[in-house]
Automatic annotation (TrEMBL):
This is Knr4/Smi1-like domain-containing protein. InterPro entries: Knr4/Smi1-like_sf.
Length: 186
């Protein structure tokens, strides 16, 4: 992971000031351990917008905090998708980095959602971890919206690097992305 964060900071310099996080409190609030690459991203960049599009949430009290917005975003988004699927039973498909398509498992209407949101896009996209097991460092990420998803099995940091480098196939991004990060004012 040290190599990956070095790759990202070489492409996008981090801000000079980043608020320290209380990861123990955040994980207690969310009732789960968060992936190490996410914690490294937030510790390096803080909360903000990557390439003018992807807003990375951080723990906190604000409406765009992973500890407040993350769970609510999942509930609202899954409800919307399930309603959409009731009208159109075709499964949502996500694009893997190699271009293959993968069916998105949304769980049943009474099942605990296997997702936790880590951020949003300026164009309505939502970023989730697909909680596929007990080890958060093995959770794939989903990014997109109804019927236009990216699915990256290696996590958030490799996904962002792949988008910037143009090395992954994406349903959500075309062409070169701006190498920028805009910190959110606290």
């Amino acid at each position: 992971m040290a190599t990956e964060i070095s790759q990202l900071t070489a492409l996008i310099p981090p801000p000079t000031f980043v608020r320290r996080q209380d990861w123990h409190a955040a994980e207690k609030t969310l009732h789960t351990t968060l992936p190490d690459d996410y914690k490294t991203l937030v510790d390096t960049y803080g909360e903000g917008l990557f390439f003018d599009t992807v807003r990375l949430w951080a723990p906190g009290e604000g409406e765009h905090s992973i500890t407040t917005a993350g769970p609510a975003e999942v509930d609202g988004f899954l409800t919307m998708i399930r309603e959409d699927l009731a009208d159109d039973p075709e499964p949502d498909l996500a694009r893997l980095p190699d271009g293959q398509l993968h069916t998105v498992d949304l769980g049943g209407p009474n099942a605990a959602p296997p997702y936790l949101s880590w951020g949003i896009g300026s164009d309505g996209d939502v970023g989730f971890w697909h909680r596929t097991g007990d080890d958060p460092n093995r959770w794939p990420i989903l990014y997109g919206q109804v019927q236009a998803w990216d699915y990256h099995p290696d996590g958030l940091l490799p996904y962002l690097i792949g988008i910037l480098a143009g090395s992954i196939n994406s349903n959500c991004f075309t062409g070169a992305q701006a190498h920028t990060f805009t910190a959110v004012e606290y």
